[in-house]
Amino acid sequence: MKPRHDIYATVTDQLVAAIAVGAGDWRMPWHHSGAPVMRPTSVAGRRYSGINRLVLWATADACGFTSGTWATYQQWRTVGAQVRKGETGTHVILWKKVERADGAGEASGDSESRARFFARSFVVFNRDQVDSAEDSLDQDITPVSPSVAEALTFLECLGVPVNYGLHDAHYRPDIDRVFMPERSAFDSDLDLVSTLAHEVTHASGHVNRLARETLRDYHKERSIRAREELVAELGASYLMADLGLAYMPRADHAAYLASWLAALKHDPKAIFTAARQAQAAADWIHAAAAKPVAAQTDAGLVAETLPDLALAA
Predict the structure, then answer these.
(1) How far apart are alpha carbons 312 and 297 in whole angstroms?
(2) 247 close to 57: Cβ distance less than 8 angstroms
(3) Please, what's the b/e burial string for 195-209 (b: 16 or more CB within 10 A of its CB; e: otherwise)?
(4) Domain range for residue 286?
(5) Is position 312 within any domain?
(6) CA distance 56 to 206
(7) Between 294 and 250, whose confidence is greater?
(8) Of 307, 193, 282, whose CA–CA distance to 231 is shortest?
């Protein structure tokens, strides 16, 4: 087991290297094709999330892995498979909660203050790195939606109004509303959906939802804005992978690259925080989409301004 600070540094260094490699053509570790490899799971079918999802994406992309199944050396052995000699594993993180023995926090009734969380590192190997693994072990989590049209509906049913018109894509927290260009302004319907995923990830941070500080303080300074944009980038990427759709680069986000690299190099925990907040945003969006939404104010605006919803898959 590595010391906690080494875990942060190891993961951050890997992601900084991946970002640097892709900087020339604006290809980040979270841009993907929507393939099953972008929905990583353990051999037991447990889904990886947050920072682990991002790390495994970056590794799969760098190594050309085609499988989304990962396991430790011993876990592969228990299912009759063998990691090939010379293969290099990937560190993933398990957060372990340890209750404090001194009873601190009991007087205030704050249960969280009586516990501490420690990061433990484990090394896992991709199915492409092992021999004799059964085909049935390569379990993929079925995407939420099989088509672009259904994905658009999924993102429009969260209770966050979406206005289509002569706008640049943006979210306004003061009125809790997403503004999007007309469909004709996008190069493809996939671009439309991925842009909307980015904007609703911003909306998840509203004070009445996840109350994300980087959204609240978005206009205070550029570094805060860059951190919020990183959360939205990762959250949209997670959502698009869940939907089985690609998340491709947006040139206008390349302006934040220098700020992201500076933040990651200065604070090894920064990418962990962003990935955690992005996963929380994606989880909130999935939960909101699963709930029946009452008639929304101005609900007719979407149908009125985007009449053709039969999008090409």
Answers:
(1) 28
(2) no
(3) bbbbbbbbbbbbeeb
(4) 148-305
(5) no
(6) 29
(7) 250
(8) 282
**Which among 261, 232, 205 is positioned nearest to 16, based on CA atoms?**
261
The pTM score is 0.80
Mark which of 81, 102, 137 sits at the end of a domain.
137
Q: What are 228's two structure tokens?
A: 């919020």
Same domain for 133 and 152, yes or no, is no
Asked if 301 and 168 sit in the same domain, the reply is yes
The owner of tokens 């959204």 is 215
Per the domain annotation, does 313 fall within a domain? no
Tell which residue, 178, 200, 188, 193, has the closest CA to residue 148.
Answer: 193
Do 99 and 18 sit in the same domain of this protein? yes
Report pLDDT digits (tens) over 147-181.
889 999 999 999 999 999 998 999 999 999 999 99
Same domain for 265 and 185? yes
Rg of the chain over all Cα atoms, to the nearest angstrom: 21
Contact between residue 74 and residue 100 where contact means Cβ atoms under 8 Å apart: no
Backbone angles phi, psi at 207, to 5 degrees: -55, -30
pLDDT tens digits along 82-140: 999 999 999 999 877 766 555 554 444 444 445 576 778 899 999 999 998 877 666 66
Instruction: Assess whether 163 and 301 both reside in one domain.
Output: yes
* Residue 103 near residue 49 (C-beta atoms within 8 A): no
The residue from 137, 169, 204 where one domain ends is: 137
**How many independent structural domains does the chain possess?**
2
